[in-house]
Amino acid sequence: MANAKHETREQWLKAAIEEVRPLFAAALKDLEFPGYDKKPALPSLKILAVGVVPLNKRVNGTCWPAAASVDEKTSPIGICASLKDPVEIIKTLIHELCHATVGNDQKHNAVFGKLARALDLAGKLTATTVSEELKITLKPIIKRLGIYPHVAFNKIIVDKAPPPGKVRNVTFKSVTGGYEKYRAAIRRDHWNEYGAPCDPDGIEMVPVRAK
Questions:
Q1: Which H or E run contains 193?
Q2: What are the phi and psi torsion angles at 196 (to 5°)?
Q3: Could you say which of 4, 60, 125, 169 would form a disulfide bridge with 149 (CB–CB 3.0 to 4.6 Å)?
Q4: pTM for the whole thing?
Q5: CATH code for residues 9-145
């Protein structure tokens, strides 16, 4: 993409993480989390995997727990392929990094909420929005990052739909702590059309691999 400072969207997203890292450090410096027995810190890029993925139309991003990765140490973060506005993308990234910082087991509780508000995320904690303060903060960051090298998807096709009369169900499992046994089965063509289902906390579920 012409005039882009980064060749790939993944490089752009990783650079964005390093740009917002000081924001997390400043926010966490003055925050206290009564009853929370960990010292939250934004993970290093060594244990963060970030990329663009096809997500449910209702979900702009997702942060899977480390248990979802093969090494059980890396926290995968996905940004929806339909996003194209850098402000919305970084806001979504900050939201998911809050999960990675305090732990997915905190879900959207008070611990998550305290960090999210300190970073100027507005709106419902399950679907945060960009505050005016955050827009001002992100303006120079976006300028330094340059163009987001990505052509947004209009419609996400996860898999080729089966022929008529051969519609198959796909089973999904939750990767959220506390819902390990939660399962949902939907028609493959519905998956193609509407995206994967979410667990009770609104976290994108993953397909169960066939043996």
A1: helix 188-194
A2: -70, 155
A3: 4
A4: 0.75
A5: 3.30.2010.10
